[in-house]
Structure formats: structure tokens, C-alpha cells
What we know:
This protein is an alpha/beta fold.
Amino acid sequence: MARTDTYLDAMLRHLGAAYYESLHGRAAAEGRSSKDVISMQALVVYESMFGNTHVVAASIADGLRETCEVTLVPVGAARAGLVAAADLLVVGGPTHLHGLSSAGSRQAAAKAAGKQATHLSLDPDADGPGLRDWLQDPADGRALAAAFDTRLADLPVFTGRASRSIGKLLKQHGCRLIAPPESFLVNHQSTLLIGEAARARRWGAALGAAASKAHHPAHA
């Protein structure tokens, strides 16, 4: 799930302004008072080796800001306090060997990025922990949740889907999934397909709306 430095930097710069926009600032721009906004705390946790899952996670976070106050962190920064404070927990990572990454698959990805001919670039937090270990004890069972992954653009039976494993583990910890696991696609050159970042933003917005209804049923 690769990306050149130039493309990844451009994508993240494009998302940057929205990333730091607060929910109340958005409400003011739309002529609403903060009292009209149902404020929820959403935490988006991602694992990313080559940057694609990072871009997708940032896009999801941007969509969630329509209804939530959002914190976006790599898995290594997803501390217990952040998880405990979240009303909605959104977790995603790359699909390696049909499922979650392992120490071996992450090491192989890092070696691939080190080969000059590949033009691959590691995400800034790629050397941190993976989701597999973090998901051993991620939550206290109170949060609403959703799972996503990045994977090759092919039939799931051939590629696998890390999001299925992520969703199962979140449910085992007592989280309530509010949407089916979702995949965002890369091509065989390990580049995020055109339109996938925008689709991730729409998915994030839909998650926020669903979470608001689940968390505040009186407003549904």
C-alpha cells in the first residue's frame, strides 16, 4: 500500500485544513450555534506502512467532523485515556496476507520500502506497533465502533480483508459495531485508487450520523 513522498504529502496537505477545523468552528460557519450541535467524541486509530491507510483515516476523520469532535492518531499513540473518552472508535489498517499485519509482514514491508527501485515510502509512524497487538486490549466495552482496511482492488476472497478481523476483535471487547467493515482499495502499483479518499470522507460522515442516532436516540 505504497505512495510516493510527493503524492502522500500532497494528499495530507489537502486534508490538513479540514483536519484542524473544529466542530464548533464548522457550526459557526454554517450559521448554527454550538447548542444546535450534538457533540460526540470520536477516535480514529490507524496503522499505516506506506501512507495509504493514513490518508484514508484522515479522510474518515474529516467526514466525522460534521457531527463529532475527532482525534486522529496512529496506533502507537492510541493510549487508554483516549480510548476511554471516545464515544465512537474507528479502527483501520492495511491488509497483509489476507488479514491483520504481523511482525513479519511489517518487516517485509519496511524492506520493500528500502529498495530504491520500488519508489516506496514508509509512513512516519510505520515503525510503531501494529493493530494486532493493540487490539488485544483496546477498549473498555462502552464505545460504538467501526472497522476499515486498505487492500488490493480484487475480490475479497483473493485479497482478504483486515477489517473483518478488526471488527471481530472490537466486538469481543464489547464494542458495538454501527456499520459493516469497509475496505478502501489500492492498485497493484500500491497506489490508492482515484476517488477512494473522497469515498472515505463520505463513509466517515455516514458513520458520524449513525453514531449520533445511536448515542442520542431522541434526536433521531
